[in-house]
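Q: What would this complex look like in 3D?
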Amino acid sequence: MGNKICINILACIMFVPFLANIAHADSSENANGGTSKPYLFELSYYGETFFHPGLRFSVGRQVFGSARHAFVASLATAYYFHFQNSHNYFIDAGLDYYWNFDSGMFLNLGISQGYIHTFAAGDVLEYRSGAVYETFDFGYGYYKPGANFGFGYDLSRLESVGKPMRVYFKAGAFGQYPLNQLLIYNIFAEVGVSYAYSFR
Amino acid sequence: MPIRFDKLHAVFGATFNNRTRKTILISVVQFLFALFLLAGCSVDRQVDFFYVKNAGEVMPVDVRGNASNGTFILLLHGGPGDTAQYYTMMKPFQQLEENYAVIYWDQRAAGNSYGHPSKSSISMDQFVEDTHAVILAVKKRLNVKTIVLLGVSWGGRLGYEYLASSYVDPLVKGWIDVDGLSGYLSTYQASRDWVITTMPNRINDPSIAQSKKDGYQNALNWHQDRPDLGSGGFLDIFGRFMEHARILRVAGLYDYDPDFVTAELGKILGWKTIFFSSIDTLQQLLHATNWHKIWNDSESEVARLLADPAFANISVPTLIINGEHDGAITAALAQTKYNALTSLTATQKSILIYDKSGHDPMIEEPDRFFTDVNGFVAALQ
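A: Here is my prediction, written as structure tokens for the whole assembly.
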């Protein structure tokens, strides 16, 4: 019961940035005559326990803060594979704080929550009524809270790049609940690039 | 030491020249390529790999070794909450795989098993049905002629429960109990008797270091005050059992040579296992330390776990292996189990007490363990 209440509270807290994001985008358009802050697209290698490989894609937008201290809300989706363990897909919503340095380097702290679906990494035989049958595995879904830290570099500082791109590294932990009635922890690392794009 | 924030700019202010950037980029691409190759790698000696789904749980089954003669050893791992995968890295099991196929199955709420099992389905009856389901699944996929069950610690209890049930498969021709649990109450009481009988001699032995004696004294004091597992709910009773096991472990009373066992387990649980194996070590650890919190906590289940299995119903040839120095599953308990196998004649049952082993004879006396298990299985064919 306690866990459910915590999850509901977390869910409410985490979705506030997205409401704020929409509001911010609208007000920004009104104030600037149609201009708004760019969307940040991220594509990364996603390694659960660092070396169980996957890919992650996210879209984010700064919701408050300044150029030096920025808060970015994002939506992400990812897949990773753990050999003879599981296939996993997840979507999550995150809020990241970025501390941007004059040199182009930046530090990052973030929290997220979402949904992760886990599938078997092989054939599945189901036991029913005293016999076993080959079956399609629909997998199991879990609530996924997470937290991360990281750092990166703004490549737009490099003349040879000249694009609004960043490279970054993130590491953190996320949970799966209720996996066998427990909150199971996992650690991960990410190496990726982000691109800032304005639709106007 | 305070963080000098003004230095951070200096640290992160470094820029790279073109050559360095290219080198870093190539290294990153090579690293990612290697990881994806690794993700698709195969396993040595693997015969088959699949999952068995039952009552809300999906459980991996890894079959390795030599399946040509149709003899399969089904490993029932310990715990509850351990994993069968650790045994794939132990020498005697790798030796057994040369002659037979070994089935490494992660039980429900253990190892890499996952799902949404209800609390009521994490029960002894469900574990027994799962064992039946795994045997049916292996028979469906592979050419099985003989199955031998091998249960370690908690797996010993599960083996007895399965063999005393109505599920017993006709291809199950033998049973090996390795330091196997009996009823939780009789297991605890045998262990307590052993602690109270043997600890005073150790405490008075001048050749034993004081640091070890402190652990022995703590174990003695704790057990003297607790003649049984007490009363209360599931969590109270089995929480007490877990505390008893922890005190024995801390005092080094599980093994003949605890330092050696720790070193050997350290090799198994090294960085290769954590980062590059199929084992989810964090998940396994959480399963093993929380099993008593997620188990079916009904009164009938408490009574079921505390009571001894129906040893008299066991009808397959049985080999009991037990470490003489196992403080948790004592040699005296092993003898009691042997005596309780009343349906078996003297030629159908045997007991071997290893004098240089505790709870992990497959680690402390691997060659002897392989020889005995191999000989027992060979005689069944």
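A: To summarize the key features: The beta strands of chain B are 46-54, 57-65, 71-76, 101-105, 114-115, 146-152, 172-178, 318-323, 349-354. Chain B touches chain A through 57 residues (CB under 8 Å).
Q: Very helpful, thank you.
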